[in-house]
Design a protein that fits this description.
Layout lengths: L3 E3 L29 H6 L6 E4 L5 E3 L7 H9 L3 E5 L11 E3 L4 E5 L1
Antiparallel strand pairs: 1-6, 2-3, 2-4, 4-5, 5-6
């Protein structure tokens, strides 16, 4: 059994599935919690997303750079987890599968 499962409706009324959820391993190590691309440009970010394939840390789509999505588009790494205090649901971690466009919750 994997570490993650698709949220009850996956964030989609039609209740999509995720072809990548069973391939998620342990979370990569996190260094300093920042979006390096934004930091180099002197930009602020709203939230961070951790790539569960390689550990890349990028800003969310609500941020100026949307570097987590850019990372997915350039690498094809499908799943990123919300990291930090801006992760909405109190006490609940979540992840997003860019390829299947569904939310994932930890088991």
């Amino acid at each position: 059994m994997g570490r993650w499962r698709v949220a009850p409706d996956g964030g989609r009324p039609e209740g999509r599935d995720c072809a990548h959820v069973d391939g998620i391993g342990p979370a990569p190590e996190v260094g300093e919690p920042l979006c390096r691309e934004c930091a180099r440009r002197g930009w602020a970010w709203v939230g961070l997303r951790l790539c569960l394939t390689c550990g890349h840390l990028g800003c969310c789509d609500s941020s100026r750079g949307a570097h987590a999505t850019a990372h997915y588009e350039s690498t094809g790494h499908p799943i990123a987890r919300c990291l930090g205090t801006g992760c909405a649901r109190p006490g609940r971690r979540w992840a997003w599968c860019y390829a299947d466009e569904v939310y994932l919750w930890p088991r």
